[in-house]
Write a structure and sequence with these properties.
heterodimer, A: alpha/beta, six-stranded parallel sheet, two-stranded antiparallel sheet, B: alpha/beta, seven-stranded mixed sheet, 14 strands, 36% helix, 19% strand
Amino acid sequence: MASKTRKKQQATQVDQAASQANGQAVQLQVPSKPIHFEQTFETYPAGAYTHEELGLSREDLLAIYRNMLLQRRFEERAAQMYGKQKIAGFLHLYIGEEAVSTGAAWSIKIGHDSVITAYRDHGIALALGMTANECMAELFGKIDGCSRGKGGSMHFFKAEKKFFGGHGIVGGHVPLGVGIAFAHKYKEDGGVCLTFFGDGAMGQGTVHESMNLAALYKLPIVFIIENNQYAMGTAVWRAFANTEFYRYAANYNMPGALVDGMDVFSVMKALRKYVALAREYQPSVLEVRTYRYRGHSMSDPAKYRTKEELEAKKKEDPIIRLKSYMLQHGLSTNEELDAIDDDVKKEVQASVEFAEKSPYPPLESIYEDVYAQPDYPFLA
Amino acid sequence: MAIMQFREAIRAAMIEEMERDERVFLIGEEVGQYDGAYKVSEGMLKRFGPKRVIDTPISEAGFAGLGIGAAMNGLRPIVEFMTFNFSFVAFDQLVNNAAKIRYMSGGQFKIPIVFRGPNGAAGQLAATHSTSVESIYSYFPGLKVVAPSNPDDAKGLLKSAIRDDDPVIFLESELMYSMRGEVNEDPEYLIPLGKARIAREGEDVTIVAHSKSYWIALEVADRLAEEGYSAEVIDPRTIRPFDFDTVVQSIKKTNRCVIIDESNPFASVSSEVAFQIQQRAFDYLDAPVLRVTAKDTPAPYAKNLIEYYMPSVDAAYEACKKVMYVD
């Protein structure tokens, strides 16, 4: 299968080279009439899809519900622990955006496909099946953390889940996503790379370079712009001349789509399509419109937006939406869903206890994992 | 042994390692169809095809990051910068991603990648195209920095760099590409990273010089020999990790040291080497350590100024005479 696709791919490249050679003369000529382009972008609105058409069973829905709730409760508790100064550094909460991470995780083969994201990474980590224990321990800076206490909130990693991090520089990880996808294609292993980044990253040159390279090399990647409307305290309309980010796809001859990120079904519907395209070496750009309920980080009181705006957005809450859907369709009961919440709260509480008990990294570990070379001569 | 140009030795190393290991590939601007801006990769596209010799747009941050991501996901990229001056466009990728991801992931991801290309000033290219970057990249724990001085070392060190599981910055002096020398043809010829070479033994003064500066050191040693002084010349070959032990052993014998380095002087390789010498061998020194570097300015364009800017044989000779208290 893979080699068949590959042959097709090579043939396409040859065709392109030929048409480019022929096209050079054409490109030199300036047409006398204005140039008009038409472009279509698919949309995935909220409330448009049912669990049946997504092939989701009642058990799937319960698992999805539990996963989103785990992210929510984990981060609520993390915020509390930050207040108690058990957690230091920056803490960027994902609360409100859980449908994006969960919808994405349920659309790939975890451990086979790859995922990379920026610093708001707790949600995607938990969605991929990383444990609350290893995530909370990392926030506490303990040795049992997913990055052995070396990464903190912004730098979660998990090789066995093919989760390539958690990255702290806006836009800096986007080329890495392209490279991860490049390796999937090179190895012909059928994997794709989901590369998440925020609306703020759209101002970075690396994103432009990455999209161009991915489209040029036909890489198995989906660029997922988590547009939560604010890059730190700057609203998108104050930072971008064009705030319709899905349209950037057109510049690189990729398909682009606009997705409602407050509905996990919409995210799954879109992701499944574009992941399948990526497996055929067609990269794409998805703008997923979502909303973060908290400030950019714990130090941000979010005074740049109104209470009314926040309250209006909370009415679209992805967890409440799924809950209502399940109740309306007789797929679950209030009691059953409350029991899940209790169970999740216990898991999160246990993770706090686990993180408390886990030791700090031993001082000699400061020299570990700088180099693969075991006897590297550090300066004393 | 065969006689090869510096560029041919680098090419031979890449070809041998790509034939040995299918995970190794070459990516960069003009490396394929154009055969390399300095013809280092000449013929490689034909030999390995477009899957493994990959032309990029002028997009340094993009393709440097692509290489790092590919290394995280199991490949072993060689990323060519057309010149290391352009690596500054990709600086974040090298110093925040390549250098630090292994550490921040608690050792879960290794980054076996080589960034290579011409380094330093090459005649009258003016300031933006003339920077020597070794001290900049050797500042960052997580990176290794290699700067060979001759074709044989270039081949053996590059093969080691490609096989190394850590990110390596491999610096080729632009003016050395056509230099010829004997090169070992054994496909298992590997020079370990972090081991200096005593290029010439002597008793009276130690000269430490890497890359192109090494050839200045040899000329100075010849000139001193005519006057009856013997200089010991050490080529560190690797800037990070630096083989201080070999340098210190030499100073215990000669009690004097001059460092030649094309970098700007402030916070440079020579600064660190001089510091380490005073820390490790203070009691053995009979004179202050001196250094000969580029001037503390951006590189100028005018012919007379760039010649004045670069470390010269005369200046290095004078420095040696000074530490020996001769004249």
